[in-house]
């Protein structure tokens, strides 16, 4: 599948998108009907259709039995429901999530696999290819693949993937050695390398963004905050972060550094944080922090599911711990609410699985610290898309059809040079 | 001056704006040149010009001496530099600020006057009219006045002035009885009454918004953050509040409740706040809070200028106090920075006059609590527009030409009914 289809010129890609869009909108159309709608010359249209059919993006449908005036009925063309158009990949700290949509923008599959936090990037990309393979094994073809939307941990300034440079950028991504995102031996920043690796592997543009911001996007389009114009998304996972939809637009921040709720100070005398700060929310509310604290109090849990079990059994130790964690989280949420005034707060990530044990104290602290006038104007919800939220957000980035992205920089591949080099047919 | 000019129909107003815009852009034009540019019929154009001249918005300029081919040179028309087009009024808690621009959008005057916090609204509006009179006394004519942009304390959902309803809304505006904004005897909310009073007095549409948000707008267009696309503005005055420019747009929040930095908790065991919360930043960093704390420690200062004097004299008590206040402010700013990633922080309000004594600890705490990766990406600045920032923001709201307002609801008068009732000439 790699390199099976060199990128076309932007113009030609635009014509293809026009034809695909018409088929998406109208359903099956004859060549003549397509010609009327698209305004392309007959030669150009037939050329494009031939290619689309050759690569299985479009299939010819048998003419219907309705009799026509004379001659045989015209053959119609329709989108191949098995053709993939966009893939989203979330390179999370300790796991990989992929999802794909077909040309009709239906989600045709999603898959996840955990891995060690120190898995080298080459192997992560291998794993990504394997997981995407499980989707194509399910019938998805990649011939029509337009681009891949990729989420990575840490600050990324935008879909054009200018990773934030500077000595502390990598630390902010989760600490040296912890998530494998630091540049090795002074080489190029990891986001760029990932992008190049994926680009080589799949032969299509790769759009990059922060994976938690993409999860916020996914939840705001298809998930718990669908339709929300002012959304605060918080993810409680190996890291603690989030994303914002502000006034109907996904927010990036001046330097791609927004949504870092996990690094808001909750305890000035607290533990040292990987970001270089002290007493950040992440030092209290990340998976590691919660499990460490639980074990320090004599609890036994190696992972979140085991903690959830203890919670469901009503174990006082687990409930007490989560109460304190929830109060810290609620305090941070209240501060951010007072600053930006969202109408919806969505909480996701593995720790959200602890349910009311965590959400009740969050709501209590939120109520205590948000301006009373805002209290009944913000609704607290649990994320609904699960662990593939980030991969789905990556797909949204590629499709770039959500109004939430209207003001977000349009997806640009990192290396337009490469894009040209591979030439057009 | 009141009712001297009934509102015209929107169409006619649009034609007038077209003509005024052409004169603003090209400078003096003859009737013939105007006709070519504007595309209006000769009758319509001459009608409109006659009215504009009659109301002193446009003046005829003597023909220049350059000889023409034949006949006498054509008379040219030009904007009257003394004609006011927009007025901004900031109804602050204890003072009133007005500013005006002429048709060329030059600021032609500004004036301020302090008053008691409990001054009734009718008298505030009288005062506003008097202050505006001092500007017109300076030569400004109100004939061409298009609208008034008004800032008020407390939550306002937007320039269409839907004041936030609900039992606690007025408290959030600064506490019952403190700023006179609460509805009296269950009457209509104060922002609406102010709007109606001003509308009666000046006979033009009155656009309303939160005054601190307008100050943020003013500073982001003409002040310390001019050109900034991601700006955090904090005002340290009788209340503590702020405003945000997010991704190049003035931010309003889902319910007009954004920028309430003064109600972010800084001390869970702190003093009761007028908003109903406990230990809000405002209980530590408002003018009253700072002066009270200073006096409690034996200091003598009745107002901010006296405190500034003590600071300039290097008094340890004043410096120590402001150090603590600055640390609290810096912590809140760091939290908001981590959440939204601005590139500029602007601090205004009377307390900013204390200078380094306050800014140094703010910067220290900001550095200690903002994510290290963001540290060198945000610049802390002192506001430059002074006390008329809010009035200038009101003018910006009326002109609605700043890109920062491109996505902000266009100015709508509260009462379109009234607008119709008064009829057109």
TrEMBL record, chains A, B:
Disordered: region residues: 159-188
Pfam families, alphabetized: ROK
Q: Which InterPro entries match?
A: ATPase_NBD (IPR043129), ROK (IPR000600), ROK_cs (IPR049874), WH-like_DNA-bd_sf (IPR036388), WH_DNA-bd_sf (IPR036390)
Coiled coil where?
none
Q: Which domain of life is it from?
A: Bacteria
The record's similarity note reads: Belongs to the ROK (NagC/XylR) family.
Designated name of the protein: ROK family protein
Q: Which organism is it from?
A: Nonomuraea purpurea
Tell me the organism's taxonomic lineage. Bacteria, Bacillati, Actinomycetota, Actinomycetes, Streptosporangiales
């Amino acid at each position: 599948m790699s390199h099976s289809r060199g990128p076309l010129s932007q113009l030609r890609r635009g014509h293809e998108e026009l034809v695909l869009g018409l088929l998406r909108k109208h359903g099956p159309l004859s060549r003549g009907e397509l010609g009327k709608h698209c305004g392309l010359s007959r030669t150009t249209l037939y050329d494009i259709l031939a290619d689309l059919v050759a690569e299985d993006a479009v299939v010819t449908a048998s003419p219907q039995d309705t009799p026509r005036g004379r001659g045989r009925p015209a053959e119609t063309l329709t989108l191949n429901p098995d053709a993939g158009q966009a893939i989203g990949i979330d390179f999370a700290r300790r796991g990989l999530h992929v999802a794909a949509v077909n040309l009709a923008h239906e989600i045709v599959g999603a898959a996840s696999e955990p891995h060690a936090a120190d898995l080298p990037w080459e192997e992560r990309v291998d794993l990504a290819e394997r997981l995407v393979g499980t989707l194509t094994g399910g019938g998805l073809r990649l011939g029509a693949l337009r681009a891949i939307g990729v989420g990575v941990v840490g600050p990324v300034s935008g879909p054009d993937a200018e990773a934030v440079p500077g000595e502390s950028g990598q630390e902010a991504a989760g600490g040296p050695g912890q998530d494998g995102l630091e540049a090795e031996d002074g080489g190029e920043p990891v986001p760029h390398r990932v992008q190049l690796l994926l680009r080589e592997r799949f032969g299509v543009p790769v759009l990059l963004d922060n994976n938690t911001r993409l999860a916020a996007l996914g939840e705001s389009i298809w998930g718990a905050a669908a339709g929300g114009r002012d959304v605060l998304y918080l993810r409680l996972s190996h890291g603690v972060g989030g994303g914002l939809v502000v006034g109907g637009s996904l927010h990036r921040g001046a330097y791609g550094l927004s949504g870092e709720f996990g690094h808001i100070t909750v305890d000035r005398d607290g533990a040292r944080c990987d970001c270089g700060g002290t007493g950040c929310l992440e030092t209290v509310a990340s998976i590691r922090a919660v499990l460490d604290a639980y074990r320090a109090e004599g609890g036994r849990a190696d992972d979140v599911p085991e903690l959830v079990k203890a919670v469901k059994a009503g174990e006082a130790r687990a409930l007490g711990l989560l109460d304190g964690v929830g109060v810290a989280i609620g305090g941070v949420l209240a501060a951010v609410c007072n600053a930006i005034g969202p109408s919806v707060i969505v909480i996701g990530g593995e720790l959200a699985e602890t349910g009311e044990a965590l959400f009740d104290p969050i709501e209590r602290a939120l109520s205590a610290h948000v301006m009373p006038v805002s209290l009944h104007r913000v609704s607290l919800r649990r994320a609904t898309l699960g662990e593939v939220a980030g991969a789905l957000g990556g797909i949204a980035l590629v499709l770039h059809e959500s109004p939430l992205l209207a003001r977000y920089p349009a997806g640009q591949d990192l290396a337009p040079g490469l894009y040209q080099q591979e030439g057009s047919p």
